[in-house]
Hints:
By secondary structure, the protein is an all-alpha fold. It has helices at 3-26, 35-46, 51-61, 70-90, 92-98, 110-128, 132-141, 144-165, 190-202. The protein has 2 domains: 3-98, no CATH class; 110-202, no CATH class. Residues 1-6 and 90-98 have low confidence and may be disordered.
Amino acid sequence: xxxxxxxxxxxxxxxxxxxxxxxxxxxxxxxxxxxxxxxxxxxxxxxxxxxxxxxxxxxxxxxxxxxxxxxxxxxxxxxxxxxxxxxxxxxxxxxxxxxxxxxxxxxxxxxxxxxxxxxxxxxxxxxxxxxxxxxxxxxxxxxxxxxxxxxxxxxxxxxxxxxxxxxxxxxxxxxxxxxxxxxxxxxxxxxxxxxxxxxxxxxxx
Length: 205
């Protein structure tokens, strides 16, 4: 691979690595030392076009396998491509909506927005360490009302971090400078939140 091509693909490979690491963490397994090589190999085999597409494909694949294989990721990519073509050709209004420059990061659908927000809350608590994620699961099991009350300060903390640092994360590559910051954006990964905490501790703006 030429050096210029490698540099262009590095944000994509980094996102693959982040997604894989999160998969291992979610099931309590150690992240393999070869994860960088695995990530580069997956990109060579599948040819993701952007970090955002990596996130979308992994999100689908994790519904099938805890740690998606190359075969599963390829199948999800095929399904994604078919849906994309159908969406573009469905009708004029949907095509206009899809072509919104922010749509790849900030969905229009309320359900997708809620999913992104909940994923951010989960990743934030995992990044915090300690009992944070366990407490989140406990709050969820205690019912919707308790869960909303418990997550309110977490969402406020995430929004403050997003305002300062979300654009610095790999997932924001290509996001329009004029695009709004929202909890419904593609959620920061566990590693992203840890990086945000580092920025905070170092006093970065």
